[in-house]
């Protein structure tokens, strides 16, 4: 198999018109840079306006003749792919959980966070290329979205595994909104076998520790990075080969918070450029480590389940109280009808205001009950899938021959607390 080299580019474009700074100018800069650099594959996130995508498509028509914009949600998925190589097929999967509709100041729920897949032919190789954007963290100490992000990571790894069976090469890029050692990140890499370009690269040129959200970026509020003063690494290009193809990362680079010749950066995130070289390899499985990771993920999802159940119970209880108040009002309203000549005991204005309040409580709690029920079902589905997967992994681990266990690293030989099958 001849050696094939591919350059992959990934960037969260921060493309919210009227809310982000210099949006139009930055997309112009991005288009000019992509024309000049001529990457093989370009993976973009937060291209929220289809007009921006069409503008880039027109500008990149010569350098990247093949492209696709993934549509999803109220304002779109924000995901786009441009390629030198022909795109044979595309598919989008929208995550079942993506924040809360009433957290309007965060806005994630309104964006159809998803994973987009494109199947390319790179020479004689079939490449499955994925671009994704997961829910933001906002507050690391009190991360109420952690169960949602773990479920998104779980669905992402399932989607990648189940759609890449026939692929020679798998490439995933995007803003995962997770630190390298976060649970969702470990779950994704452990289960799929995807490797991190930053950890695998032979040559690196970029921000310290591969950070992609840095304090030196003009668009970054340093308070948002606390407790990480210099920055964090949440954008990735992950890759893996197959039974007949191995992939090596020869080099990786990131932008460094400024663009020479321009007054501001491309985005609030740093851009990643990765050069991959493809040959032949069979990756080993680390089942013991994977069992631990899935167990931890399942535990986190159970925490989210209990929280959702508690919130649904609170909504139900509040709704019942509102209903009781409404019935009480109806009883009071019936007094003049039952006792002829009796006057209404409450002032009419107060009576109507209280009735409106009761009705508002009923409507709000009903909507919240429906939402939390949907959240519960998604979390329960993910927990059930993890339970089945864990049982399968445990069977595989028990079935390993004893001789193979002696070749494992000391970490892999540590005893694992198996959970009894349900």
Structure characteristics:
422 residues; Deoxyribonuclease I, Chain A; 2 domains; seven-stranded mixed beta sheet; six-stranded mixed beta sheet; 15 strands; 39% helix
Record the SSE blueprint.
Layout: E1 4-12, H1 23-37, E2 41-45, H2 50-59, E3 66-70, E4 79-83, E5 87-94, E6 114-122, E7 125-133, H3 146-163, E8 169-175, H4 183-192, E9 195-196, H5 197-200, E10 204-205, E11 213-214, E12 231-232, E13 235-240, E14 247-254, E15 272-278, H6 287-338, H7 348-398, H8 402-405
The radius of gyration over CA amounts to: 26 Å
Label the structural class.
alpha+beta
Secondary structure tally: strands: 15
Helix content: 25-40%
Strand content: 15-25%
User: If strands are numbered along the chain, what order do they take across the biggest sheet?
Assistant: 3-4-2-1-15-14-10
Major sheet attributes: 7 strands, mixed
Q: Helical region count?
A: 8
End-to-end Cα distance, whole Å, is 46 Å
**Average pLDDT value?**
87
Taking pLDDT < 50 over at least 5 consecutive residues as the criterion, the unreliable ranges are 401-422
Taken from the alpha-carbon principal axes, the silhouette is globular
CATH class of the largest domain: Alpha Beta
